[in-house]
Design goal:
The complex is a heterodimer of chains A (106) and B (163). Chain A is mostly helical and 106 residues long. Chain A has three helices and no strands. Chain A is 74% helix and 0% strand. Chain B has two domains: 112 residues, Four Helix Bundle (Hemerythrin (Met), subunit A) (Up-down Bundle); 39 residues. The chains are: A mainly alpha (106), B mainly alpha (163).
């Protein structure tokens, strides 16, 4: 059993990596815009896990938590704008499928 | 404990990826966020864990689920055309990227060194975070406030039919 299994830095980085890969796969392989949006949120969370893991293992750095707060604010903005765009698209095209909304003209 | 929370996180994310029903996928996402909050607790950072639960599982996922129910698009629509080549190329690129990154993380000397040099720390508390923000990052704090305001106005402007 490696040290990464009981909470070393490598373990946290591996979890962040797996989260990022799954989020990337969701964005690239699923067609529903709402699923793709959740994939983006997943990738953002992976970045947060890596950031706070490094902050902890560098002696409990406060700056990591401060930047986590800022990322949280940006994620909230991104959620509001992204969902507003999905709703606006649905109003015009009656679809949430990315493949059905691939032309700029109506 | 680390392994439990890591498994909750990864299993929630995988279930979200595999799930056909978008609402159930959103609930799997909430499970993932709770797992991540547990990981933050294991990193002795209860501030981040509380914020994760309040903002992500509380605010953002409620917004997403609300939008799904508003648009009434629970199921994925059938594909217009199957795109097997793009899907396979995408999947294999992700797999190559993942394998390469895994190899780098497991073989990294610097990561192991940081790990060895670390010692037990006191848990994070709100007092320290607040002092750091208002002493050194006041400008960023104000910009985040402005950004949230503009995002709110932008969301209303985008979704409103006639302004």
């Amino acid at each position: 059993m490696g040290a990464w299994m009981n909470g070393s830095l490598q373990g946290y980085i591996l979890v962040a990596l797996l989260l990022f890969i799954i989020g990337l796969a969701t964005v690239m392989l699923r067609r529903t815009l709402l699923m793709q949006f959740m994939g983006v949120e997943l990738m953002l969370n992976a970045a947060n896990v890596a950031l706070l893991a490094f902050a902890r293992f560098r002696g409990g750095d406060v700056t990591g938590t401060v930047f986590y707060l800022f990322i949280l604010g940006v994620a909230a903005c991104e959620a509001a704008i992204g969902l507003a765009l999905v709703i606006a698209l649905f109003r015009h095209r009656k679809t949430t499928d990315a493949d059905r909304a691939d032309s700029l003209r109506q | 404990m680390f392994l439990v929370f890591a498994l909750i996180t990864i299993i929630g994310a995988l279930a979200m990826f595999r799930q056909k029903n978008v609402i159930v996928a959103g609930l799997c996402m909430v499970l993932t966020f709770f797992g991540v909050a547990g990981l933050f607790l294991m990193l002795s950072n209860p501030v981040a864990a509380a914020l994760q639960i309040i903002v992500y599982s509380g605010a953002i996922m409620v917004l997403v689920l609300f939008t799904i129910m508003l648009l009434n698009s629970h199921e994925e629509e059938p594909a217009i055309q199957a795109r097997p080549i793009q899907r396979w190329v995408g999947a294999s690129l992700i797999a190559v990227f993942g394998a390469f990154a895994f190899y780098i993380v497991m073989g990294s000397k610097a990561l192991a060194d940081i790990d060895k040099a670390s010692r037990p720390i006191a848990g994070m508390n709100l007092v320290r975070v607040g002092e750091e923000i208002f002493r050194h990052y006041l400008l960023g704090f104000e910009i985040i406030g402005l950004l949230l305001l503009s995002a709110m106005v932008g969301a209303v402007a985008l979704t409103k039919k006639e302004l």
